[in-house]
């Protein structure tokens, strides 16, 4: 079984059911499957062959879904990239992935219109120079069915990591990897043909794409797409489309929770309020439960390289364990926390989370060394340091690469960051280790706030709540922390050029 066959099957089972809804545009499963055949034939006419890599540079729009399945239907490998990337970043991915084609949306076209390195260039809207029109190619494409006999072990997709510590790496997936995690979500979160899944987070990311879009296609649900996220659009989409499932980063929930329209909004159709990318604290959970009038918040923890998969904090567990990422791995996945020797840790002992399951990637594309380093036997290293509490719940302590070692003592920035954020006025913070001539490293906090912060008072605040060796020796206030195109804080620039004696 492959993704293309799933779509083709649902076109037979549910021909008139809505497959894709986007800003008033509605496409049935039969129509979607016909468009996929048409665009698949068009890609072949342009010279795209089985095994070629095809970059998708699009927001969440119907053309993304059509192109995604058309590329796979002809046996090519799809490479979705973040809609916020710049031309140099896309050129790096194009070169590294050996891509032969790029399909872009006209909204993003100004960012990459000068790209010429690829043999096939397609954009939505009107043709321009070397760029051919998506709509023209689609209309001219043959509707005849394209047989797709790819096996579950065949290569399907390359997703590029955000590159917070260097150049992004291409995570290579098979169809088995993706269908494994899609079926996990379908079972764990009750995705059914009558479900209506709201997709507002970028489909270039593994959770929206592999978990929710593919789970929906697997069972024949309706996919409700929006090309961007705003609180108004979030509320409108739930009310108008009666969506049942939503996945978003915590910030999407927190921003919307303060929206004045929320009190009068009818959000009763939404049964699964799923968040991931970071845990929510107990006060944040209480705030969101009240704002959205729901007890159905669910946390998913995982990493792209695992499909993604990892663990679940269920709705009923939030009452006492908010901030944790749950106590069990979901369907098809196993989870352990191990020490440096690969041995299971005890209660309250810190170790690295490792995952095993058929959702785990095939490896990093063209990077055998990084692939070897990523695995401990069959277990995928997450790089996340965590511990089990006495009830078996998992608490993420920090990223392994972010640990600060000062005088031989391990310091975990996440704990310090969470404490600093309790100080009034501070909006975001990053704690890093900078070189120290005597101690090896010392602690520096870089933060953004809505007004100037008295660091003497901040220091006193922290000394009341943290051991003295954890309190930063250096503070720096900035307008905003540096972030990459995925919104992750870039810590490396904050470490550079600082040495303390």
Give the tags.
8-stranded mixed sheet; 501 residues; 5-stranded parallel sheet; globular; alpha/beta; Rossmann fold; GMP Synthetase, Chain A, domain 3; 27% strand
> What count of helical segments does DSSP give?
15
**β-strand number:** 26
Give the helix/strand class: alpha/beta
Q: Remind me, CATH topology of the domain at 25-150?
A: Rossmann fold
Estimate the helix proportion, in percent. Answer: 25-40%
Q: What shape does the CA trace take?
A: globular
Taking the sheet with the most strands, its summary is: 8 strands, mixed
Rg, alpha carbons? 23 Å
Strand content range = 25-35%
Task: Please explain how this structure is put together.
The chain is an alpha/beta fold. 30% of the residues lie in helices and 27% in strands. The chain is built from 15 helices and 26 strands. Strands 2-1-11-10-12-13-14-15 form an 8-stranded mixed β-sheet, with helices on both faces. The chain has a 5-stranded parallel β-sheet with strand order 4-3-5-6-7, with helices on both faces. Strands 16, 17, 19, 20 and 21 form a 5-stranded antiparallel β-sheet that branches. Helix 9 links the parallel strand 12 (245-248) and strand 13 (272-276). The N and C termini lie far apart (61 Å). The mean pLDDT is 93.
Characterize this entry briefly:
Helix content is 30%, strand content 27%.
Helix and strand arrangement:
Layout: H1 3-13, E1 18-22, E2 25-28, H2 29-45, E3 53-57, H3 62-73, E4 77-80, H4 87-97, E5 99-104, E6 120-123, E7 132-133, H5 134-140, E8 155-160, E9 170-174, H6 175-188, E10 196-199, H7 206-219, E11 222-225, H8 231-241, E12 245-248, H9 250-257, E13 272-276, H10 282-292, E14 297-303, E15 309-313, H11 318-321, E16 333-338, E17 351-357, E18 363-364, H12 368-374, E19 375-376, E20 379-388, E21 394-399, E22 404-406, E23 409-411, H13 413-420, E24 426-436, E25 440-449, H14 455-463, E26 474-477, H15 492-495
Parallel strand pairs: 1-11, 3-4, 3-5, 5-6, 6-7, 10-11, 10-12, 12-13, 13-14, 25-26
Antiparallel strand pairs: 1-2, 8-9, 9-18, 14-15, 16-17, 17-20, 19-20, 20-21, 22-23, 24-25
Helix pairs in contact: 1-2, 1-3, 1-7, 2-3, 2-5, 6-7
């Amino acid at each position: 079984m492959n993704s293309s066959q799933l779509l083709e099957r649902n076109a037979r089972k549910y021909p008139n059911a809505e497959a894709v809804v986007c800003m008033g545009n509605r496409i049935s499963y039969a129509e979607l499957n016909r468009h996929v055949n048409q665009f698949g034939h068009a890609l072949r006419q342009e010279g795209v062959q089985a095994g070629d890599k095809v970059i998708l540079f699009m927001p969440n729009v119907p053309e993304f879904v059509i192109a995604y399945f058309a590329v796979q239907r002809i046996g090519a490998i799809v490479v979705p990239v973040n809609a916020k990337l710049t031309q140099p970043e896309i050129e790096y991915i194009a070169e590294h992935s050996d891509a032969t084609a790029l399909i872009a949306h006209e909204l993003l076209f100004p960012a990459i219109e000068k790209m010429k390195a690829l043999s096939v260039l397609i954009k939505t809207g009107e043709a321009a120079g070397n760029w051919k029109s998506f709509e023209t190619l689609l209309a001219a494409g043959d509707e005849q069915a394209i047989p797709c006999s790819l096996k579950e072990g065949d290569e399907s997709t390359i997703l590029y990591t955000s590159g917070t510590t260097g150049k992004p790496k291409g995570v290579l997936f098979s169809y088995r990897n993706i269908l494994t995690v899609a079926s996990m979500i379908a079972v764990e979160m009750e995705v059914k043909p009558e479900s209506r899944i709201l997709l507002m987070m970028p489909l270039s990311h593994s959770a929206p794409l592999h978990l929710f879009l593919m789970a929906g296609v697997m069972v024949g649900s309706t996919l409700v797409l929006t090309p961007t996220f705003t609180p108004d659009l979030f509320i409108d989409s739930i009310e108008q489309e009666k969506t049942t499932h939503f996945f978003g980063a915590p910030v999407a929930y927190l921003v919307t929770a303060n929206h004045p329209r929320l009190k009068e909004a009818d959000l009763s159709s939404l049964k699964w309020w799923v968040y991931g990318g970071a845990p929510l604290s107990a006060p944040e959970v209480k705030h969101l439960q009240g704002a959205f009038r729901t007890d159905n918040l669910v946390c998913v923890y995982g990493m792209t390289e695992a499909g993604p998969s990892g663990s679940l904090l269920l709705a009923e567990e939030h009452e006492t364990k908010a901030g944790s990422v749950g106590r069990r791995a979901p369907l098809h996945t196993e989870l352990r926390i191990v020490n440096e020797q690969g041995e299971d840790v005890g209660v309250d002992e810190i170790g690295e989370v490792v995952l095993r399951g058929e959702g785990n990637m095939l490896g990093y594309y063209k990077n055998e060394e990084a692939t070897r380093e990523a695995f401990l036997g069959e277990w995928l290293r997450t790089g996340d340091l965590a511990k089990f509490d006495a009830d078996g719940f998992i608490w993420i302590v920090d990223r392994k690469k972010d640990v600060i070692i000062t005088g031989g003592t391990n310091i975990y920035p996440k704990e310090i960051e969470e404490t600093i954020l309790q100080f009034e006025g501070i909006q975001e913070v990053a704690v890093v280790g900078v070189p120290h001539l005597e101690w090896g490293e010392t602690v520096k906090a870089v933060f953004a706030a809505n007004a100037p912060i008295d660091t003497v008072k901040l220091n006193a605040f922290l000394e009341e709540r943290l051991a003295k060796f954890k309190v930063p020796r250096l503070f720096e206030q900035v307008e905003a922390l540096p972030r990459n195109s995925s919104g992750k804080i870039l810590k490396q620039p904050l470490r550079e050029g600082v040495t303390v004696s």
